[in-house]
Amino acid sequence: MRVFWKTMTSTITDIDECTKRLEVAIPRAEVTKEVNRTYSRLAGQVKIKGFRQGKVPRRILEQYYGEEVQAEVVTRVISTSYRDLLEKKGMRPVGEANVTDIVNDDESADLTYKATVEVIPPFEMGEYKGIELEIGGRPVTGEMIEEQINRFLMQAASYEDVERAAREEDYVTFDIAGFDGDAPVPDTDRKNEALLLGGGRNEKELEEVLIGMKQGEEKDFEIDIPEEEPPNMAGKTLRFHVKVQSIKEAHPPALDDDFVRSLGGGLSTVDEFRKQVNKELEAHEESNVRQQGNTLLLTKLTEMHSFEVPASLINSEADDRIAEYERQASQENSNLEITTGQREQMRESILPQAEERVRQMILIERIRESEGLNAGPEEVDAHLAGLSVRYQMEPDQLRERMEATGSMESFVRNINYNKTVDWLYDQSKIEIKIEEVGEAEEDQVAPEDSYKSE
Q1: Which CATH class, in words, describes the domain spanning 285-434?
Q2: Does residue 79 contact residue 61 with C-beta atoms inside 8 Å?
Q3: pTM
Q4: Class assignment of domain 157-251?
Q5: 114, 18 in Cβ contact below 8 A?
Q6: Which CATH class is domain 4-120?
Q7: For 159-204, how does the pLDDT look when each residue is reduced to its tens digit (9 = 90+)?
Q8: C-alpha distances in angstroms, 297 versus 16, 56, 75?
Q9: Which residues lie closer than 8 Å to 131 by C-beta, 6 or more apart?
Q10: Where are the domains of the chain?
Q11: C-alpha distances in angstroms, 113 versus 83, 119, 288, 335?
Q12: CA nearest 277: which of 140, 442, 443, 436?
């Protein structure tokens, strides 16, 4: 496709920082060349009775395909020309332009049109390599290892009914119902709910009420609903009524070699088990540090660059977040109805986060392009294989579905985004501040107070 900015004339008017009004004139000679190229390609592709392929006269092609060719050329020339024009000025068009006032008469010297288009305005990229990050980390302690081992033991525990007040590590069944004032809250009336108390596993307010209750006892308690919850509940204080049905005491197995072997995984002794737990906890903490670092990195990157963001991108991101929230909420409560007013209230609270996310995506895409970071076929296949396990599908079958639904492009784009963020993190100057370990734990783990990675 030709680069039209060399021959066309144009004016660009600012409607605002991210919206431009274009008036463009492309010489008739350029349009004619595109028409001729299109007919040349068409002649080698079509089959018309009485003519050999590739030998169909131009006038015959015009009879059969004239209007189609003209429409295709005009669309292509306009799309290419305004993108050429904007990119030459350092602006990146967002979506398709709203094109009006097209004049394409054979008698006119130029093909002219007007267009309104949103753009990502030009901005100067700062130095993004070597961003300084100070990240909090914590060592794996003996206490953490014991807590994790205890979770394994509790998962294998047997339970026996007891007639006493509930306490931590008990398995409690109960009925619960929520009320907004005196009105029942839909989908909160549950029978025979079950919780294993303790270990920070449960809703704090609910667990505090259950601990100390006996079988058959009933209590009311209140929960303040956070602002980010469903709009019809957000910010309210709801009353819940709970009745304990049964209390079971846990009898975990002994921590010995027989228990370790029962877990499988090739481990035979308690010592091997402890080492494996320690290794997994260290990997988990490293992952937490990386996640925390990526979040801080993206925050610093956006703080370094000031530029306007097209409203359509922000609204699209907000729409996606609202749709995902509604999908998840409907799975939890099929009767949930969100009104237009509630949805707008949700949008207002989401917009700042959506704008931040769009800024991050724009910056990461600029870095990816500058550094030539692209996921290869093997990387895409590996991610696709991982996703196919989750969806219980063959990778090729999942690929076909994603290509058919048009989601493959966004899938690869997301891989490239994460690849670029990982690359940028590895280019950063990282200092990890390790939490101090008490003297009782120093024999278990004795890391440096901090370490740097450059």
Answers
A1: mainly alpha
A2: no
A3: 0.74
A4: alpha beta
A5: no
A6: alpha beta
A7: 999 999 999 989 999 999 999 888 898 878 899 999 989 877 778 8
A8: 30, 60, 42
A9: 297, 300, 301, 304, 424, 427, 428, 429
A10: 4-120, 157-251, 285-434
A11: 14, 18, 53, 50
A12: 140
